[in-house]
Amino acid sequence: MPWIQAHLTTSKAQAPLIELLFESLGALATTLEDAKDEPLLEPKPGELPLWQLTRITGLFEGNINSDELRQRINQTLNSDVTLTLELEVLEDKAWERAWLDDFHAMPFGSRLWICPQGKRPDQEDAVIVELDPGLAFGTGTHPTTALCLQWLDRTPLEQLELIDFGCGSGILAVAALKLGAKKVFATDHDLQAIQATAANAEKNGVLERLQLCDSGHLPDHPVDLVMANILAGTLIELKALLTGLTRPGGRIILSGILSEQAERVSEVYAESFMMSPPQQQEEWILLEGYKK
Ligand SMILES: C[S@@+](CC[C@H](N)C(=O)[O-])C[C@H]1O[C@@H](n2cnc3c(N)ncnc32)[C@H](O)[C@@H]1O
Known about the structure:
By secondary structure, this protein is of the alpha/beta class. It has 2 domains: about 5-90, Alpha-Beta Plaits (2-Layer Sandwich), CATH 3.30.70.120; about 100-290, Vaccinia Virus protein VP39 (Rossmann fold). Helices cover about 25% and strands about 30% of the residues. It has 8 helices and 15 strands. It has helices at about 15-25, 65-75, 145-155, 170-180, 190-205, 230-235, 240-245, 260-270, and strands at about 5-10, 30-35, 55-60, 85-90, 105-110, 110-115, 125-130, 160-165, 185, 210-215, 225-230, 245-260, 275, 280, 285-290. The strands form 3 sheets. Strands 8, 9, 10, 11, 12, 13, 14 and 15 form an 8-stranded mixed beta sheet that branches. Strand 14 and strand 15 form a beta hairpin. The radius of gyration is 22 Å and the shape is elongated. The model has no long low-confidence stretch (mean pLDDT about 85). S-adenosylmethionine (SAM) binds near residues 167, 172, 215, 230 and 256.
């Protein structure tokens, strides 16, 4: 069955009303996006800030009457939105997985490759992570993940115990294990991430050396390396916890930090870590520190 996507660009004030209207007209899902180039950084938990101009998309079953949809929207908003409402027909497809069509084998550093299932790079000594992120974050295409993967590729990991804090798809945990880490503890507050990490570890034959932890069951001893690709605000909030999880002389790798936030995060962690110069990819920064 085809689907219909309705797009409408509106003001910040009207966006919640239109979202509700789409839902009341039977939208199966609604999405809010930036209609101009106005980044919103670091919303606090529970906060849903909106852009001055917000583009709302509603996904409707294909049999919805599009004339009636336009009419109901016009009536509710008391204005003629016919000119700005765009209706788009989507052919039937598993939309949440459609991005996989564009997922290719990608190299990180000198040996490490992230590959969709069944695709292999033409490199004899390649260390391959076969990945299906499911609905969790982490394919390697985002600079914050890429910075961590490149760091793992150039670091000797044998004999090391790691924590992947905020594991998402498990991409970093599995890469570390394939590159020789002794053991990885992976944690995330999102259940889909824990499931995706377990599935990816199994697919790559490293499940035995992986321990999945919910937030209440982190390792009871500090480890050699803690890696966290989360946002800057969360990294600052988690400073005491992440510091306690790193053994003296061990290392911390922090990613998910915009360049203008790096100094603040570095300052906070410098209380307990000797911080190295930041590494940058596009506008994103990776910070590395040795525990004092
Ligand atoms: C940017 S993604 C990183 C995923 C993956 N590690 C990577 O590098 O691509 C951040 C992940 O951290 C998780 N996360 C955010 N805050 C968290 C918290 N306070 N405790 C545990 N997990 C958290 C999110 O659910 C998400 O999966």
